[in-house]
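ok here's CpsD/CapB family tyrosine-protein kinase:
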Amino acid sequence: MEQQMERAGNFLPRVDDAAGSPNAVDKRVVSLTAPASGAAEQYRSLYYRLERMRELRPLKMVGITSAMPGEGKTVTTVNLALVAARANMDRRILLIDADLRRGQVADVLGIKGRPGLAELLSGECEVRDLVRRFHATRMAVITAGATPEEPTQALASAKMKQFLKVVREHFDEVYVDLPPTLPFADSAILGHQTDGLLMVVRANVTPARAVNQAVDQLGGAPILGCVLNGAEMSDTPYLKNYVRK
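and the structure:
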């Protein structure tokens, strides 16, 4: 796998043919579709907070999860990875969709979903078949692929551990879209293999009880903090007035 990843590192000339159409990318990927918006600025702010943390501790691999489905973790992960790719042109950035139950990175970016991580773990393909560069960026993407019969077993496998180890050695920053925490054990398994986790919380939707339960279920994984998603502009009056000027 080490040699395959090294060859896959030459992904830069390889652009997914399905990427690049403005209509293919989900409009919520504001770092591309609306880079001057207040929402895009919030993702940049989040990224530079992580940068400050990197001055104090190793933070190469960041996982993003949520307590429950539908809180916006995938959109957050994609925007964060794209901001990273634009902020540091000399760094190798990788986005991994590790939600093998309901992977959405391919749909959000408008790219091909297969082969993906599931096919790699099942032995149906090699690493070099997975890594592709997203259009007009230096960001590499590995999609989730098809849903396996036993996603938790696949993510807990020795092959997954080896894959993450190799990824660490070949990329400077890795952003992993994890499954929601409460319904499945997947995030608890992978969370301990990251350098830090972000918990996405949807404003006025996610009960505090659910967030606390999710933190408990992660079993001591390194949680960096929470990302409040879906807050109305009226909830942040300073930003609202500033953007209008």
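+1. The two ends are 52 Å apart (CA to CA).
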